Every structure is written in structure tokens, then in C-alpha cells.
Inverse folding.
């Protein structure tokens, strides 16, 4: 079973060497390793070429002129020949047993879909944080950001092709958008609580560090679109998780309101069709939930 590792590369000259070392150090073989240079302006491309010549002769180096990691991932996906896809950001690392552990699960269960796996984030100050999973319900897990990450998960190429890969029109909430589209298409999920992926924060240059208003707006819009579809096609799933879906959205809207209240109010109008009962969770206390329900979202965000 061939696994293709796809690495978007944009100005990662200081990271790509260690990243590739972690890939070629995987216990599992065979691997197809694809690096996609995406308009780098530093020494990334020349470093990739040097690494191919000196250490990794089978490394495939591609060029993608369309901007964005999603375009680079889709470029790699279109060239990949593996049955399974490991996406990896060039500043992140795989522990040696990462792919072998997940392939064992695939073979054991005759599984095709995506493996939702835990990961550990290494902050700039050296602190570590391990992502939790919500194993009870994959729809809820993806919605609240507890269904793994781009790099910790392992993805069936067949299912990725079915949903047309990554959405190149968005710059944040990409993995949530992909997972929700996969779930709506009927894609199976298995959970892996092993944390075998290291996500490394950079001091600067990450999407997650830029324009919080835009990021929170995209996060909410992605989930509102999903709710509309799941309500129509999977009403049982919607009814089962409705209050948690809505409480998570309300919490996200409150965060957005601190950056861009008009945008939060506009998105709130789209949520009003969902019946939200005062519910605690996702940073909303029971008392805050009651005040929100009594005052209404517009007045609450004006007074607080």
C-alpha cells in the first residue's frame, strides 16, 4: 500500500531539511514524497534540489504558481499515485511510527475514509499542547475542531478526489471545510488517539497569526454552510447535535464580535434559523447563556 506524502513549500528554507528527515525516517515503506514549491522567494527551491541530489533521489519536486497551501496540496494530489495521502506542512514533523500506526489500523479494519488523529503543537516558547479528539460523533468532532488536523490525519485519495480535494478559495478553516465535505459525502472516519505528529509554531508567517476577523468569519461561515446541508441530508445527525452545534457557533460569534461586531451581527442573522436554547459550553457559562437568550445577541454584544 503506497502512501504519498505531499508537502506544500512556501519560504521554508529553514525548516524543510528537518521535515524531510522526519518523512524519510518513517518506519513505514513504501512512500512517495512530493514537495510542491509555491512561489517561494527564499532558498526553498534550491535547497529542495540540493536535498534531492544529495540525499533523496526519489523526491518529486513540483511547482505551483497559484498562491496558497490548498493549491499546492491539490497540485500534489493530482500527481500522487498512492492510495493514501499524508499531507504535511513543511515546518511540521512526523514521529517515526506515525504512518505505520495508521496503516496498521487501515489494514486491520479494511478501512477507506480518513483517519482522524491527535497531534502535539510545539509553541515558540517551548510549551507543548496535545489536541483532544471527540470520538463519540465524527460530525460533531469536525464541527468543533476535534477531528484531527491536516497533518495528523491520513486521507484516502479516492475520497479526496470524490470531493474535489481542497477548497482553493479559502485561506483558513481549510481542514474543517474538507472534513465536513467528506462527511456530507458519506466518508467513513476512524479515530487515532496516538499523538505522532509535531506541529511547530513559527515566530511569524503563519496564516493562524493573521487577520483574526477574517479567520473567525471563515470559521463561522464554513460551519453555517455545513449546518444547512446536514439539516437537509442528515436530519438525525442535526437533531442529535443541534444544541452543541449552535453553542459552538454562538461562542465563535462572540469572539468575532470582539474584532468585527458588524460582521458578527450579519452572520448571526444566518444562524437565527437554528433554535438555540441557553446552553453552557465552549467558553459560554450558564449565566452568560441565559443573558444571551434574554437580551438577544445584538444587544448583548453592545452592552458587554
Amino acid at each position: 500500500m503506497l502512501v504519498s506524502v505531499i508537502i506544500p513549500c512556501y519560504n521554508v528554507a529553514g525548516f524543510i531539511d528537518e521535515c524531510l528527515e522526519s518523512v524519510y525516517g518513517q518506519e513505514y515503506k513504501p512512500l512517495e514524497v512530493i514537495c510542491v514549491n509555491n512561489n517561494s522567494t527564499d532558498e526553498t527551491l534550491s535547497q529542495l534540489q540540493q536535498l534531492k541530489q544529495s540525499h533523496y533521489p526519489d523526491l518529486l519536486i513540483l511547482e505551483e504558481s497559484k498562491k496558497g497551501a490548498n493549491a499546492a496540496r491539490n497540485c500534489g494530489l493530482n500527481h500522487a499515485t498512492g492510495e493514501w495521502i499524508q499531507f504535511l506542512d513543511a515546518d511540521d514533523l512526523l514521529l517515526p511510527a506515525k504512518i505505520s500506526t495508521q496503516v496498521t489500523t487501515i489494514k486491520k479494519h479494511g478501512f477507506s475514509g480518513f483517519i482522524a488523529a491527535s497531534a502535539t503543537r510545539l509553541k515558540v516558547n517551548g510549551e507543548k499542547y496535545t489536541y483532544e479528539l471527540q470520538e463519540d460523533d465524527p460530525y460533531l468532532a469536525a464541527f468543533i475542531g476535534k477531528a484531527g488536523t491536516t497533518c495528523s490525519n491520513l486521507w484516502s485519495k479516492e475520497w479526496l478526489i470524490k470531493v474535489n480535494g481542497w477548497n482553493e478559495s479559502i485561506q483558513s478553516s481549510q481542514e474543517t471545510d474538507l472534513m465536513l465535505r467528506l462527511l456530507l459525502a458519506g466518508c467513513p472516519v476512524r479515530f487515532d488517539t496516538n499523538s505522532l505528529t509535531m506541529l511547530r509554531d513559527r515566530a511569524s508567517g503563519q496564516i493562524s497569526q493573521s487577520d483574526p476577523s477574517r479567520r473567525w468569519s471563515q470559521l463561522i461561515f464554513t460551519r453555517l454552510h455545513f449546518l444547512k446541508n446536514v439539516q437537509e441530508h442528515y436530519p438525525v445527525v442535526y437533531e442529535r447535535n443541534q444544541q452543541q452545534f449552535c453553542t459552538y457557533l454562538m461562542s465563535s460569534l462572540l469572539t468575532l464580535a470582539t474584532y468585527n461586531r458588524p460582521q458578527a451581527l450579519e452572520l448571526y442573522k444566518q444562524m437565527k434559523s437554528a433554535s438555540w436554547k441557553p446552553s453552557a459550553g465552549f467558553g459560554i457559562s450558564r449565566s452568560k447563556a441565559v443573558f444571551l437568550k434574554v437580551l438577544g445577541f445584538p444587544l448583548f454584544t453592545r452592552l458587554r
User: Anything to note?
Assistant: DSSP finds twelve helices and eleven strands in the chain. The mean pLDDT is 94. The first strand starts at residue 3 and ends at 9.
